[in-house]
Amino acid sequence: MMSYGSYERYYTEARSKGVIFATYDPEKKPSVEVKHGKPVVSFRDPVLDAEIEVAADWLSLATGIQADPDQQQLADTFGVPLNQDGFFAEADPKWRPVEFHKSGCYAVGLANAPMTLREAIMQAEAAVQKASVFLSGREIPLAREVSTVHDAHCIRCKRCIAACPYGARSFDAESDRIIVDSATCQACGMCAVTCRNSAAEVRGWNDKQMLAMIDAQLMNYGTPTTA
């Protein structure tokens, strides 16, 4: 049983009043039968490693929440990710809540995860504040360095398009070349790592510059001598 924040006290209070929480293996879910007019819950306790039967006066089931299947189409449209359960995945739940890596997009409420009404309202307020800051500026700040394409080296394999987590790359069939959207690119370098011809490059971090920095660093240690 996992709880967070102030909700931990509800769990502690329930335990103190005699409520017993039992875990189970998802592969062996509890079963329910009606015996002598009463529900009987059967499950295997992983701690005791034994089959347990509980005859209850009342059986209350919580309604499960599943992600909307249409969210996949919305995610593809805006170029934002979903998690393994089909909910929109935040950039970071702790450091960048309600935000995506892609600027200007936010996820709140049940689109993000199962949550209480209070949590959904708090997320909505946070998203409104972030969107207000984003829209109130006269200019949209871009990444200091963005990726580029050396067209002469590019073989149009389109690996960089699939590798870009921000959807900043696309193929222009009319001009027959890879196009980079500078407003979307966050200079993560995934395209440069994926490209086999060194056609994709993050400005300011090309091979010459990196090797020059490595050489300069090695020179600081002096020229090695041999005995």
UniProtKB/TrEMBL annotation:
The keyword Lipid biosynthesis does not apply. Signal peptide: none annotated. Keywords: Iron, Iron-sulfur, Metal-binding, Oxidoreductase. This is 4Fe-4S dicluster domain-containing protein. Residues 145-174, 176-205 form the 4Fe-4S ferredoxin-type domain. SUPFAM superfamilies: 4Fe-4S ferredoxins (SSF54862), Nucleotide-binding domain (SSF51971). PANTHER family: FERREDOXIN SUBUNIT OF PYRUVATE:FLAVODOXIN OXIDOREDUCTASE-RELATED, IRON-SULFUR-BINDING PROTEIN. Its EC number is 1.8.98.1. Pfam families: Fer4_10. It is an enzyme of class 1 (oxidoreductase). The keyword Iron applies. One of its GO terms (molecular function) is metal ion binding. It comes from Candidatus Electrothrix aarhusensis.
